[in-house]
Amino acid sequence: CVQTLNGHEGSVLALVLDNRGKLYSGSEDYTIRVWYLPEHTHLRTLTDHTDSVSALVVGWDGTLFSGSWDKS
């Protein structure tokens, strides 16, 4: 392990890295956290889901897409 990024209150179920150095993590705590890896910093927390976030993908234009057990 090179670096640990702490912050989620539940298990991390999905990770995706974009080409600008942002890592997105989806969790059982219903959130997506956005990290900037070059500086190992937390940028923001997305809280729109109402159940576990189990899928993440970044589109060719940088748009983040997520899937959750809340059926969205």
Concise structural overview:
This protein has no helices and six strands.
Strand content: over 45%
Instruction: Trace the largest sheet across and list its strands.
Output: 1-2-3-4
Radius of gyration: 12 Å
Helix/strand structural class: mainly beta
Number of helices: 0
* Unreliable residue runs: none
Amino- and carboxy-terminal Cα gap = 32 Å
Question: Taking all residues together, what is the mean pLDDT?
Answer: 95
Q: What share of the residues lie within helices?
A: under 10%
Order of helices and strands: EEEEEE
Give the oligomer, counting copies of the same chain as homo and different chains as hetero: single chain
Number of distinct beta strands: 6
Mind summarizing the main beta sheet?
4 strands, antiparallel
Shape: globular
Secondary-structure map with pairings?
Elements: E1 12-17, E2 22-27, E3 32-36, E4 41-46, E5 53-58, E6 64-68
Antiparallel strand pairs: 1-2, 2-3, 3-4, 5-6
Write a structural description.
It is globular and about 35 Å long. The protein is mainly beta and 72 residues long. The mean pLDDT is 95. Strands 1-2-3-4 form a four-stranded antiparallel β-sheet, with no helix packed on it. 0% of the residues lie in helices and 47% in strands.
